[in-house]
Every structure is written in C-alpha cells, then in structure tokens.
Write a structure and sequence with these properties.
Elements lengths: L1 H6 L1 H17 L4 H13 L3 H5 L4 H16 L3 H32 L8 H9 L2 E3 L2 E7 L5 E8 L5 E7 L1 H13 L3
Antiparallel strand pairs: 1-2, 2-3, 3-4
Helix pairs in contact: 3-7, 5-6
Length: 178
C-alpha cells in the first residue's frame, strides 16, 4: 500500500482535492443554490423552491426601491419606508404563498430556462458575504439578483434590483397581451 501511495501521490492528491471541492465547496456556494432552485422549480416543488428565496428581504428591498423612485422629498421617503417596514411581513407572506402555488402549478412565469440558470452561475460574483449575478433573459429583461446566506448557511435570493422596471414590463404584458 505504501509503495502504491508513493508512486501515485499526484493522483491521490488530485482525488482528495476533487472530493473536497465536490463535497465541501460546491454545496456551500451560491451557484449550488441556483441549481437547487432550478431543480425544485422543475420538480414543481414550491416549498423546496421557497427555501432559496428570502421573501421578506426581497419585499423590503423592492419596497425601498419603489419608494426611492416615486418619492421626491425626504419626508415622503421616510413615510414610504415606514409603510414598507410596517407591511413587509404580510407582503412577503403573500408573495411566498403565490410563488409556492405558481411553482406547484408549473406556471410559465416562474420557470427557469437552463440557459438562464447557466448564465446566472457563470456571471456569479462574491463579495464580503454577498453574491450577485446579472443576466438578460430571452424576453430582453435585465435581471440583477443578490444572494445572502441565511442562519443555516444556505444562499438565498435577498434582493432583485430594478424591480420597478420588471414589474412595469410584467404589468404591461398582463394588460396588453400579444
């Protein structure tokens, strides 16, 4: 056994590094969370998919972004942010319920094409406990998504930037079908 290890030390070292990468590094990466989210959506498992989205953080950041876009003076912004903080939990619970239902029903709006998942993984950047990705989907919508870790170390979607533009495009599509 000793002679085998001495002769093949490079192969053994490469095997150990690959095993560490596959068993330790990959499952703790934001890319793995994107893959798991896609897998849960494809399996129509809304509860599993919801595990990878921090609905409260997404709702809070979306609300703050909309208030900043719409409110021009500091008092209006302060009141708007207060309203967002007051209603963020019910908004997040409603968003989660709708998302889980849509994933379970296989709605087209929540499907994640393989190219979008691959693009999100390739464009993933990590800085100080925050990961972010930016990509353009086939409907020419630009997505910038941030991930943070929850208390258990799972990477979750925590912010979707430019939510006002995305909501406007979705609203336009809903009320003006092609």
């Amino acid at each position: 056994m000793g002679r085998f290890a001495i002769r093949h030390w490079t192969a053994i070292l490469i095997t150990i590094v690959l095993a560490w990468w596959a068993l330790i590094y990959v499952p703790a990466s934001p890319s793995y969370s994107v893959l798991q989210l896609k897998r849960a959506i494809d399996a129509r498992d809304g509860q599993s998919a919801a595990r990878y989205v921090n609905f409260e953080s997404v709702a809070r950041n979306a609300g703050y972004e909309l208030v900043q876009e719409k409110a021009s003076d500091p008092l209006s912004q302060m009141v708007g942010k207060g309203a967002v903080d007051l209603f963020v939990k019910p908004m997040a619970q409603a968003a989660e319920a709708y998302a889980v239902k849509d994933v379970n029903d296989g709605a087209d709006e929540v499907q994640m094409p393989p190219a979008a998942a691959a693009g999100a993984i390739v464009m993933m950047r990590r800085d100080d406990g925050v990961a972010s990705t930016r990509f353009v989907d086939k409907k020419n919508r630009e997505w910038e998504i941030q991930f943070t870790r929850d208390a258990y170390g799972v990477w979750q979607v925590s912010e979707v930037k430019n939510i006002g533009k995305l909501l406007e495009q979705l609203q336009h599509k809903q009320f003006n079908p092609p």
